[in-house]
Specification:
It is built from 13 helices and 15 strands. By secondary structure, it is an alpha/beta fold. The strands form three sheets. Strands 3, 4, 5, 6, 7, 14 and 15 form a seven-stranded mixed β-sheet that branches. Bound molecules: zinc ion (2 copies). The site of one zinc ion has 9 residues, from helix 2.
Length: 345
């Protein structure tokens, strides 16, 4: 089969790779129909994810058709169309029993990291029964791909950890796909104000279309003062960090209101400053986490019902044999305007 193989920093190829086979009783082999590229894949390409070693097939998102299942799989069968979760979970270990699938003893984020992933014609999914979700007939499968990672990540790490509530104020610092996923899912809770902050005017325009009440271009400066001006001098109840760089984490500390929460989503590669000398008395909480994807079944229902329309996040489509072009387009998002790219058969 063909697959997108990582060969070390800045080196990837769309090339022949052994087709996966069933290894464990709980496995499924899935023929991929649609996949996508995540910001995390770009972190891997920069050599920032040491667990992902050369020779690995990348990708942790997508939908496909089950080709075969191991003898331990009873709830899924060949020809089922399934959504692949970015998090594999056994459903049995201590962390899984606590709903913390991201730290599953034999799962977590392993796809396209420590085992071969979804940017391929076929993928082996361990713990298939608890890591795949059947797709309701008639559902747009491109929309489903947004449920593999970005919608549950924006929702769980941003909206739920940030305790977005009716009438509350929210700032989303970083208007990329994850920030926009937080924007779409925050609206499930009817906050009074959502402010999206980014450096890219194109992304801010999309944020306004997606329901942001205010957008601020941080390139113009004085961003914290502008957020305070929009919130009667208080700051926001929830500051969602969706960029993963020191400057945006700092900004979140400057704009969080007393009693508020800084909910970190960003993948940080460098230390950040923490201004406890200002925050210690402000009843602030700071949250960090990986996505557990426990909200996937609920979010799937909101997509099927039309409450959330994740198709709006898809800006580009490619066929599988143009995977490298898809990487190029996604990697130059500032020039191409790419949010999520779909790669499909
Ligand atoms: Zn991802
Ligand atoms: Zn587990």
């Amino acid at each position: 089969m063909k697959a997108l193989v990582y060969h070390g920093p800045a080196e990837i190829a769309w090339e022949d790779h052994p087709k996966p086979v069933l290894v464990d009783a709980g496995d499924a082999i899935v023929r991929m129909l649609k996949t996508t590229i995540c910001g995390t894949d770009l972190h891997i390409l920069k050599g920032e994810v040491p667990t992902c070693t050369p020779g690995r097939v990348l990708g942790h998102e997508g939908v496909g058709v089950i080709e075969s299942v191991g003898p331990g799989v009873t709830t899924l069968r060949p020809d089922d169309h399934v959504l692949i979760s970015c998090i594999s979970s056994c459903g049995k270990c201590e962390y899984c029993r606590r709903g913390m699938f991201s730290h599953c003893a034999t799962g977590g984020w392993i796809l396209g990291n420590t085992i071969d992933g979804t940017q391929a014609e076929y993928v082996r999914i361990p713990h298939a029964e608890t890591s795949l979700y059947p797709i309701p007939a008639g559902t747009d499968e491109g929309a489903m791909v947004m449920l593999s990672d970005i919608l549950p990540t924006g929702f769980e790490c941003g909206v739920l950890s940030g305790k977005v509530a009716p009438g509350s104020s929210v700032a989303i610092v970083g208007g990329g796909p994850i920030g926009l996923a937080a924007l779409l899912t925050a609206q499930l809770y009817s906050p009074a104000t959502i402010i999206v902050i980014d450096l890219d005017e194109g992304r801010l325009a999309v944020a306004r279309q997606f329901g942001a009440n205010h957008t601020l271009n941080s390139a113009a400066g004085d961003t914290a003062a502008k957020v305070l001006a929009l919130t009667e001098g208080r700051g926001v109840d929830t500051a969602i960090e969706a960029a993963g760089v020191p400057a945006t984490f700092l900004l979140c500390q400057d704009i969080v209101a007393p009693g508020g929460i800084v909910a970190n989503i960003g993948v940080h590669g460098k230390p950040v400053e923490l201004h406890l000398e200002k925050l210690w008395s402000q009843n602030i909480a700071i949250t960090t986490r990986l996505v557990d994807t426990v909200s996937t079944p609920m979010l799937l229902k909101t997509v099927v019902a039309g409450t959330i329309d994740p198709l709006r996040l898809i800006t580009h489509r490619f066929k599988f044999d143009r995977m490298l072009a898809a990487y190029d387009t996604f990697g130059r998002a500032a020039d191409t305007g790419a949010l999520k790219v779909i790669i499909e058969t």
